[in-house]
Amino acid sequence: MRSLTSRTDSEHAHRCVHNVYRAARRSIFSVQEQTDDLVRELHEAVSSGRFPALAKGEALPADLTDFAWGFRREQDGHWIVAVLPDRFEALAPSKPSAGAILDVLVEKGTALPGLDGKRHRQMAALGFPRAGRGRWVCLLASKL
After folding, report:
1. H/E/C letters for each residue in the chain?
2. Which of 105, 132, 136, 138 could lock onto 112 through a cystine, CB 3.0 to 4.6 A?
3. Which residue did the predictor score with more confidence, 68 or 30?
4. How high is the pLDDT of residue 7?
5. How many CA atoms lie within 13 A of 87 on its CB side?
6. What is the mean pLDDT of residues 67-72?
7. Which residues contact 93 (CB under 8 A, 6 or more apart)?
8. At what angle do helices 31-47 and 95-108 cross, to 10 degrees?
9. Which residues are bridge partners to 123 per DSSP?
10. Beta 111-112 vs 133-140: how paired, if at all?
11. In this structure, are residues 93 and 34 in contact, taking their beta carbons and an 8 Å threshold?
12. What local confidence, expressed as pLDDT, does residue 18 receive?
C-alpha cells in the first residue's frame, strides 16, 4: 500500500508544481509589452490634458495641481513630455519594471537621459510638489 500512497503524493506534487508554473507564466509580461502599455497610457494622458504646455518660467495653474502628471515644453527644437518620476513608476507594474522600461525607452531614443547618464533630467517647473529644480522623466512627445 505504500507505493500507492507515494504515487498519489507524487502525482499531487506534480499537479501542484504544474499549476504554480502555469500561474507564474500567465503573470509574466515581457519588458517590451510593459513598455508598449506604458507608452499607450502616456499617449492617452497627453491627449486628455494631463500634461499641460508650460513655457519656461510659467507656473502650473492651481486648478491643475491635482490633475497634472507633468508638463509639456518645447526644448532644443523638440516638444518634450516631462513626467513626475513617482507617476512614471505608478504606471509601471513595479518599481523594477519602471527602471527596465525607462532603459528601453532611452535605448530607443524616446526618453532623454539626464546628465552623466542619469535616468532623470533636472528641470524647474513651478506649481508641482517639488520646489526648485525637480527631477523628471523626459520623453520626446513625437515618439509617444
Report:
1. CHHHHHHHHHHHHHHHHHHHHHHHHHHCCCHHHHHHHHHHHHHHHHHCCCCCECCCCCECCHHHCCCCCEEEEEECCEEEEEECHHHHHHHCCCHHHHHHHHHHHHHHCCEECCHHHCCCEEEECECCCCCCEEEEEEEEHHHC
2. 138
3. 68
4. 67
5. 22
6. 95
7. 29, 34
8. 80
9. 134
10. antiparallel
11. yes
12. 83
- Look-up of cell digits 500500500: 1
Among the residue ranges 44-48, 61-65, 125-129, 140-144, the one predicted with the least confidence is: 125-129
Give the Å distances, CA to CA, from 27 to 23, 34, 52, 96, 115.
6, 12, 35, 15, 35
pLDDT 10s digits, 79-90 = 999 999 999 999
Q: How far apart are CA 89 and CA 84, in angstroms?
A: 9
Residue 70 to residue 43: CA distance in whole angstroms: 13
CA distance linking residue 78 with residue 95, whole number of Å: 28
Q: Who has greater pLDDT, 53 or 1?
A: 53
User: Which grid coordinates are listed for 76?
Assistant: 532644443
